[in-house]
Amino acid sequence: MTRIVCHRGARLNAPENTFSSARTALALGGSIIELDIRQSADGVLYVMHDETVDRTTNGTGRISELTSSQIDRLDAGSWFDERFANERVPRLDEYLSAFMDEAGFYLEIKQADCAAVGQLVRDLGIEDRCFTFSFDPAMREQMFLHAPGIRRMILWIAAGSVQSAIGQHQASIVEFHDFDFDTRKIVECQEAGLEVMYYTDRQDLPRFQEALDLEMDFVNIDEIEAFDRLRHNHKTGP
């Protein structure tokens, strides 16, 4: 069955990259939480997408220039809806610990100490429940060096071939987007033993159906409910 990777949790239903977002994502049918990792000025790992805290909290400034005591006081929920007032920016250790018994994790490294990320995952005993990626090649190299037990994902556009995905990037998962979604390439990856994932931030039911028909391993999406309904019908019939 194609598994749902919840992009920043259930970010259409709750403030992204928060405890509420993750809880909602799992309740809606997701099984893997995608999260972004950044680090405070004093070295604490946090779950946050942006370089600054401005968009998703009541604070301002670069997260890398704020101390953990400053970040811990931020309200990360009211910007989305007052129902989520006083939602905290999650510390990575608390976030993974909270959901590790019921979810897997896609760890996207924005800017962080990869040795610390790898050590945390090992300490929690969840290496086999995680995979990782970064748009920053330096972060990818650091994760490969410090966390060799965590599976790696690479974008098809970055790899360009099955041989590169496996050899150069040491990946076990390849992600396709709308602009490079190609049945032949997807099947080629599957035949080589790679897992395949489709990413979109849109509700595209025909493409969701294609992903199910191709028996893709994962979809990395915002539209959790729409895909789960389609997946249920695909499995059991209308």
Question: Would you give an account of this structure?
Answer:
- With 238 residues, this protein is of the alpha/beta class.
- It has one domain: Phosphatidylinositol (PI) phosphodiesterase (TIM Barrel, Alpha-Beta Barrel), CATH 3.20.20.
- 35% of the residues lie in helices and 20% in strands.
- Strands 1-2-4-5-6-7-8-9 form an eight-stranded parallel β-barrel, surrounded by five helices.
- Helix 1 links the parallel strand 1 and strand 2.
- The protein is globular and about 50 Å long.
Task: Please summarize what this structure is.
With 238 residues, this protein is of the alpha/beta class. The chain has helices at 19-27, 68-72, 92-99, 114-124, 137-146, 156-159, 162-167, 183-191, 205-213, 224-236, and strands at residues 3-7, 32-39, 45-47, 104-111, 130-133, 151-155, 173-176, 195-200, 218-221. The protein is 35% helix and 20% strand.
The helix/strand series, from N terminus to C terminus, equals EHEEHHEHEHEHHEHEHEH
Q: How would you sum up the major sheet?
A: 8 strands, parallel, barrel
Specify the CATH class.
Alpha Beta
Overall, the morphology is: globular
Continuous helix count? 10
Average pLDDT number: 97
> What is the total tally of β strands?
9
List the helices and strands and how they pair.
Blueprint: E1 3-7, H1 19-27, E2 32-39, E3 45-47, H2 68-72, H3 92-99, E4 104-111, H4 114-124, E5 130-133, H5 137-146, E6 151-155, H6 156-159, H7 162-167, E7 173-176, H8 183-191, E8 195-200, H9 205-213, E9 218-221, H10 224-236
